[in-house]
Amino acid sequence: MANESRPCPCDIGDRFDYGGRGQEVQVEHIKAYVCKPSTSTDKAVIVIHDIFGWQLPNTRYMADMLTTNGYIAICPDCFVGQEAWKPSNDWGTFNEWLKTRNAGKIDKEVDVILKYLRDQCGAKKIGVIGFCWGGAAVQHLMLKNPHLKTGVSVYGVIRHFDDKSNLLHPTFFIFGEKDDVIPLEQVTLLEQKLKQNCKVDYEVKIYPGQTHGFVHRKREDINPQDKPYIEEGRKDMINWLNKYL
Fold it and tell me: Could you give all domains of the chain from N- to C-terminal order, each with its CATH number?
């Protein structure tokens, strides 16, 4: 069965039963999920989803977590109406599907969201985080978008941007030690290139024993051995944003 060949293991994670505290909005040609803190702030974070799209409850959970930490959080549909991947899809077709959803071609959408955050939400300091596909998108944005202050790339698929390391903004990279999609050799190579070329602050951190998706696709209550690393990854993400926004 072709379905047994899985180029991305994101689906092994847990799909949270979570409704979300924010609301869906239309921003020009893009749908987005927005959550705002109870007190006003000029700090915002764009949350870039994984292959399962902007409506995945796990990603909205992350956006809401950012809001409880004082940030306006917005998760736009970076696939712009194209269908997100489903675990029931034939993984044999995954690479063809991925060709039509390039993490390095979201600049137009991000510019629209930046304008919305500035004009409608009063945001002045804006960062970005992303998971898996979205983590690769974060690396792309950190290489070229002058309007973002900082980024957190959470198990971003390195091979899409493995020759690009001259980052514009402070960037935090989160990886799992046991990630089948991102071998540790790729992480080591990324670190070497960042050391050679990067002029801004960066950090690459590998979390022991963790598989792809652990920060947002594992539930602490049913993965007790992973709980400290899940919590650590989320805390590190918030601390990085607090430092640079």
Answer: 23-244 (3.40.50.1820)
